[in-house]
């Protein structure tokens, strides 16, 4: 059975991973290889204090374990979904073993296996016997993290079926993201502490080694000391945990389909005849607000940015630092863009109602208003409250220059991305038991995180100039500039999304129903899919990733830090060289980042032009066929 499932998974990957998806797989694999190489490199670091290297390796392995838990929650449904085999007369444990075997065929598993070779290289420094013990220990840890991710995915999905459970899931999800992304804080804390010379505290070291991801290190260290009882205990405990996880996972595969959560609204409510809730846009606005309130998937979508912003800005308080508190509001506005970038896919084929009524522009505006209503007040409240709490009066112009632009720009970006980069997922009324099995928007979210920073650039430029030139008028001009930028972007991108939805709504509906482009579109282009080449897609994604990184965290941020005298090194390369050279390094980062961003925009618009030409050809083909395509698409809905 394992062989059949592996062949099935490879066939699905071969036929679905094209264009952008393949590019994201290659990009993710490249970053994974870098992290795996860094993990192995850690075992060759010369540290005098015995036991410290083992603790550091255990810390890194704990981060890998968290990554395996977070990854499936963010990425959506697996390639092989268990409910597809629900009607087969296959014992659940046999199915679990088969799916587990198939799970080892993938880029993430291969990269993790490479990273876990670090246990063998670490043990090789301790002797031949520890190296031999490291082989089964590393293999067991790999099986453990794969099973843990499956069990966590199933259990979190079970909790997320209600609105309260969805909110709790969002908080847990955000917490795991923060823990995963804040590894640099741990590295900074280790670098500036005496850990490398004195070692971790006994309490921390003991607690760390009680985590199952550390039991391989425990077994290797015990083998080096000749404590074979502890070696057997660690390996046996790991085997027991693996067995328990397998049993739990098998049990979740056999549970009957759960009833759907139904949240009923008020009846006989009067129809508004005036104000913000009246008219086509007001109707969509009311519908969207109810969806944000009633749909558990929207609850998770709204909870994750708020929890992520709070945890990110509150975490430095553990180091008695309040520097991030004023940025809680901007963080909500920024991360909301990545969370709500696939709204039309969440509604599924209900899009036919918008298409047949000709309410595309009203639909876009209503969704934008609802987005601002959900995330606007909380962003503003956190900005005001946390800035007062921090006591940093200098932060007010900076916060005022970011929040309006991020909110307005976000309202434009999320609706435009939902139309032009829609990722089809399970239809709203056909969602599987696990609400986490949704469209995989990992690529869109990563790109939008960096693009979402751009709307605040003009206002922040004015604030920086006002601060450096000591011009209060220019310093406080950032707020009005930010507000104007936000309104302009929301209006412009919303209008563009409305036009795009009007032109390609039928194609979007077909993609959501089938996951493929329309037949007329392929016929009009000679059977060529509306996809860009893998090479162009890969280069574009690399530009979109590298450009913003060089422009902001390696360019503008250290450049401003050096100018205003902030001494925070973190991962800012320019902060590790003398100030004169630091300005040069940061300036080079800005120039190269702008160049890469310009190249990314050029490639994106070139691909967009190609798509537009093909879509125009498809439209001409539909017109020649009598314009019956839309009716044909809507008939089975």
TrEMBL record:
The keyword Secreted does not apply. It comes from the Bacteria. Keywords: Membrane, Transmembrane, Transmembrane helix. The chain crosses the membrane at residues 22-44, 56-75, 95-119, 126-147, 228-250, 296-318, 324-344, 369-392, 398-426, 447-465, 471-493, 541-566, 578-601. This is ABC-2 type transport system permease protein. It comes from Hamadaea flava.
